[in-house]
Amino acid sequence: MLDLSSHAAVITGATGNLGTAVVRAYLARGTHVAAAVRDAAKGEALRGALADVAGDEVDPRLLVIPADPADASAMDTLVERVLRAWGRIDILNNLAGTFKGVSALDTGLMREMWDSNVLTAVTAAAACLRPMRARGYGRIVSVSAIGALKGSRNSAAYAMSKSALVRWTESVAAEVKGEGITVNAVLPTTIDHPVNRAQMPKADPKLWPSPEEVASVILFLSSREASGVNGAAIPITART
């Protein structure tokens, strides 16, 4: 069992199917979690779904904070709030992102995928790295996708953005090497949750990794025990 009880984490994309599993996994291990949410209603739904592990008024282990992870000012404000509450930021998980599939010539979608899948990670990291560097410790884990490794029909914008996220991960990892900070990415294939099942009714989800399996890899990379892993892009391709 990883000991993450003394850690404070910032998580973007926390209200999604994967995000909920990741936040629950942290809270179950005693981590304090700040969830940056764009949609207040989804944020309240997240708080309600995790009420059994979210702490209490004396020790609130889950803060749901309205913040667009692509907005630098909003993320700076979130970081200041977390530092006032808990005095530290040890972990950043970039889970925010989306998928849309259209022609490789759709320039508007190219920009949308960049803003959703890359800009959110860069902006959140810029805010969280400042206190991490000041303390000499931090873990950043971003969710790319197995589709980053090879383009396919009607997936150019998505594949390009997720591939760019991997290259960004490698570059930031090199920049902070030796500072006690690691920067890694995971590359899951299709994750087994209701939305993906509904969108791909003819596919067999039995081999898709579950949100909990992906969360387990993210938590390991976010731990002190993963200090030797930096700049990696780890595929998560099958349920075992």
- Our measurement of the CA-to-CA distance between the termini, rounded to an integer number of angstroms, reads 19 Å
Q: Provide the spatial order of strands within the biggest beta sheet.
A: 3-2-1-4-5-6-7
Shape: globular
Structural class of the helices, strands and pairings? alpha/beta
Residue windows where pLDDT falls under 50 for at least 5 positions: none
Number of helices: 7
Radius of gyration over C-alpha positions, nearest whole angstrom: 17 Å
Mean pLDDT: 92
Largest beta-sheet details: 7 strands, parallel
Name a few traits of the molecule.
240 residues; alpha/beta; seven-stranded parallel beta sheet; 7 strands
What does this structure look like?
With 240 residues, the protein is an alpha/beta fold. The protein has helices at residues 17-28, 40-49, 72-86, 107-135, 156-176, 194-199, 211-221; strands spanning 8-12, 32-37, 62-66, 91-94, 138-143, 181-188, 233-236. Strands 3-2-1-4-5-6-7 form a seven-stranded parallel beta sheet, sandwiched between helices. Helix 1 links the parallel strand 1 (8-12) and strand 2. Helix 1 crosses helix 7, helix 3 packs parallel to helix 4 (107-135) and helix 4 (107-135) packs parallel to helix 5. The chain starts with 7 loop residues before the first strand and ends with a strand. The mean pLDDT is 92.
